[in-house]
Amino acid sequence: MTAITGDPDEAVAGIADGATVLVGGFGMAGMPVTLIEALIRQGATDLTVVSNNAGNGDTGLAALLAAGRVRKMICSFPRQSDSWVFDGLYREGRIELEVVPQGNLAERMRAAGAGIGAFFSPTGVGTLLAEGKERRTIDGREYVLEYPIKGDVALIGAYLGDRRGNLVYRKTARNFGPVMATAATLTIAEVRRVVELGELDPEAVVTPSIYVDRILDLSAAEASS
Amino acid sequence: MTAITGDPDEAVAGIADGATVLVGGFGMAGMPVTLIEALIRQGATDLTVVSNNAGNGDTGLAALLAAGRVRKMICSFPRQSDSWVFDGLYREGRIELEVVPQGNLAERMRAAGAGIGAFFSPTGVGTLLAEGKERRTIDGREYVLEYPIKGDVALIGAYLGDRRGNLVYRKTARNFGPVMATAATLTIAEVRRVVELGELDPEAVVTPSIYVDRILDLSAAEASS
Amino acid sequence: MTFPIPPAGRTVEHLGRGPLGRDELAAVVARDIPRDSFVNLGIGQPTTVADHLAADSGVILHTENGMLGMGPAASADEVDPDLTNAGKIPVTEPPGAAYFHHADSFAMMRGGHLDVCVLGAYQVSERGDLANWHTGAPDAIPAVGGAMDLAIGAKDVFVMMTLFARDGSPKLVRECTYPLTGLACVSRLYTDQALFQVGPGGVTAVETYGTTVDELAARLDVTVSRLDGR
Amino acid sequence: MTFPIPPAGRTVEHLGRGPLGRDELAAVVARDIPRDSFVNLGIGQPTTVADHLAADSGVILHTENGMLGMGPAASADEVDPDLTNAGKIPVTEPPGAAYFHHADSFAMMRGGHLDVCVLGAYQVSERGDLANWHTGAPDAIPAVGGAMDLAIGAKDVFVMMTLFARDGSPKLVRECTYPLTGLACVSRLYTDQALFQVGPGGVTAVETYGTTVDELAARLDVTVSRLDGR
Fold it and tell me: Could you name the domain of life of the organism this protein comes from (chains A, B) (predicted)?
């Protein structure tokens, strides 16, 4: 059953030190900024964060990094024009980095959510990022074996949720949210607004409630703050 | 570019003898009956058909089987209360059968569409249906290696298509259609009606036009017949 | 009638009555499905469990053909050929439902997201092996559907069946003789004669209906423990 | 200015002019994208190819962050932070678009459904190996994004780059010295000096701009063929 709250601190309660945290967003689109700010207050540390980027500017994921809470980043594209927080930590040797091709990153999380033990991907064959990985030729094409990435927690941003926990997204802010929601033990979504049952079109629900443990209703959060 | 026609015979033109044809539907829901009828007239034979069931009653897939065009069925559930056509052919040894667990069937087609070379599935481990398959223990759990199922052709039923070829489905008639659309070289969809560009909600498109080669517009077919 | 949830740690023998009827069995299964669970009910008898879920149970039904939040069977004037359950029976769409395609539906199962799945069976072994898809008879047409996916695809797999076949042979066995559907996947076995836990710890009777644990143990070829260790 | 599509089977040397400017290069790439193609334009210079596609080209743009049918960059009053391209630049949504999540977006790429993908590069080898993600410099922070997925994820991979680096060394090479993005994946190489086919058959010049095939061959360490076999 999905718990719905307007309190960001309640939404992130219980995240443990050492947890693997999947963080949605592609750049700032779909980034669960309010949940990340709450996670900083909550204090969990020694985290492994899985996210496409390694933070932009000084807010959101960048602020979590700046607070020294992240031991390791697993991402596809850490180096951006505004990723100075990560860049600094990395150059000082204060953060570990695993670079994963973006599609393998998404598919490895899908595999975790879909109960797939491992899969052969053609992406990265013959490159540095496939070094040490099992390789196989299937039907004349080369593949490397990729394993699931499972999260203890997923923090995602969606557009609307209903009272049951079904989610819809908005435009390209959808990105990693639906995949991460399936891949974590505890999925927490921030949404702009929670609507009544029946207000979302069942044909257009992207993340069914089974994948959503907690929803932070940003409209309620604003109303009470 | 998606070709749109109101002529069922034009929609199925060029399907070759010996082709592997993915046929959508779960029972009759989502079954592309008009396309199958056209395929019977078109005459392609020696087909391998991949579909969840092996025909119901005397129409659709059952009629294709009855016409003697199918060499082999790959399906999860051939035996149904109204699958007398398949049952008869099978007992007479006139059709080959590969039974695949339903989720592996769907995932093997997804793999074909997604460029995955093979994947480790926990489904079927230790059963007759996994005999002879590569087995591996990953993280303490047993898996069998499953390979993609690729179609030369997919025949699917959808609800609406737009002029570009984007598709939406209706309720549980969605079933295998979206997966099969990704897994075939030539995807042909029958839809109740083709709508103008912009009439489908971009958030709710299930099968983007890139996966759709031809659309049979049933409303146009009826108007002209 | 329904039975109260048995007290933890004690095996309860319901005597002074016969074995459970089909409806009673479905009611016992329904009783044990936790509130607000996500549940898949298999084709056939398991489908009837839905009729015994309390209106306020919060249970959300999954159907393998791509729906979460499935409603009850459709009445004659509600029938929509595009909306069926896994048994191809027309059902309804209550508010809050969601549709998805087959790969997503089975990802949901295979990924272990369902809380409970209820299945029928030919045989269940003391370790929880399940045989429910194929009699192995030479003239039988094999058909598995989603059975193997469901067997490995829920946190708890409940089986409901009669404890004995028509010829009197037990269907709870040391080793399944029918072709397997899944290994060590069943956690609870609901029968007309008794409710058992099965698994790595072997067979434990939770409740009996119209018979005693000792009487049942005498008729079975497996060791049956009691919750209270007697 | 744009160049006509060169006649089949003949290498064309456009003399009496200098090498292509960036806009001209983008126009040549756009010229060679077949009508009604599904195309992914990489971050940076490849993005500018969109500006040279005819309004009636029928080309449908894919962006890795989950959209098919992407529109042009958003003007100031159209900016929507939820709608960007892979370079995180705000774009627009024309009628007929479709959104999907990242796993679906990369399944579309990896599954070979895109017709053309246009990428930048540090180096391309005569066999079509691509190096475009990492300079290998010890202090560089590695960042791959979708480059490796794109490299293997389209029926045709076009690369656009200058033919020579700032230090004058050729970027079309026998073997890439930069870390690879993908093996034997590039089919056509668009440069300021010439358009080449690369692949199993080695390097073939299709067009040159302000120079001759012979002049270029003298400056490159690879064998350059002509379409007409001379």
Answer: Bacteria
